[in-house]
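FORM 7B - TANDEM STRUCTURE REPORT

SECTION 1: FIRST PROTEIN
SEQUENCE AND TOKENS:
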Amino acid sequence: MKRILLVLFVLLLLLSFVSLFLSVRPGNLYNEEYAIYDSLGQTYRFSFFASFLQTSFTVRVQINDDGTADLFYRGDFITNRGLLRSGRARLNETETQEFFHLLNETDFWNLPTEVDRMGTDGHTVTFEGAEDGMYHIVNRWVPTSDDPVSRIKQFFFDLVEQRFPISHIVILFAMAFTVSIISTVGIIKLLRSIRTK
């Protein structure tokens, strides 16, 4: 009987880890995304790529004629509310003006594309902008606090935390994680009872 229970616990543990892996594996961040350098109107895109963690995402900002902006999110980002895979939101006119104010304050269009700073761990930040036939991109490996790109990065991290609803994938993640913990505890208890007898 104990062997049957052990086999069941091992199978349950394996299934829960597979489910956990499927719920958090990073997808292609650019599925349904496109190159913005030849976009009509005004389009911006922020991308965050972690070296080893499964936390990478992109947010595209499409400026509308009425002064608002549409936001399109793709990727895997663990927020304080759970795991986020995709989403869409809107900035009103005031919020869109705050975004433009950030671009002006950081002098985005004149920032160097790259700086002489690289590493093997950490994360990479990319921010692109296309407006009236102009295109500019900045790439930074772990932007320092004195680099204006760090303010752009913080803006988008706050934006993702505040504006995007968590999808149903959070429920799958939580369930898989819970089953994994319960299975592990069960196997440990079962193995201890087998050793003592």
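SECTION 2: SECOND PROTEIN
SEQUENCE AND TOKENS:
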Amino acid sequence: MSSEHELGEPAFAYGHPPRRVAVVGGGMVGLATAWFLQEAGVQVTVYERDHVGAGASWGNAGWLTPALTAPLPEPAVLRYGLRAVLSPRSPVYLPLRADRALLRFLTGFVKHSTAGQWRRGMAAYVPLNERALEAFDVLAAGGVPADTHRPETFLA
């Protein structure tokens, strides 16, 4: 199952890979983690409660959408979000209550919902998204079946 790839050498906490690793969860992330650990010479056992892809990977239909990764605190989201968290019909409804932690979170969210903060967040996501796409290509080249579709222009 060895393949040449350009992702560089994996980084391990103690400088060398462990001999054996247990990965909990046989979804997209767990299996990809197991794959790359095995590529680094680690003996991997994957534990899955149900069957491969039964959990979160099933729930999001197994979509890999790094192009849709964006920082949540953003001026437009703030405007929409305030309406959404106050509407009992919204999936993100938060009943208002005297809660210091909630107030601290909401204050920080508002403070960071600026165009400049959003641009800095997007710049931080770019290298991560590039590595995710490279890793996907490595898995596909290694024989992992994956239906991919060219995205059409999408504007919300």
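SECTION 3: OBSERVATIONS ON SECOND PROTEIN
The chain has two domains: 1-63, 66-145.
Confidence is low (pLDDT under 50) at residues 1-5.

SECTION 4: SIGNATURE
Preparer initials: ____
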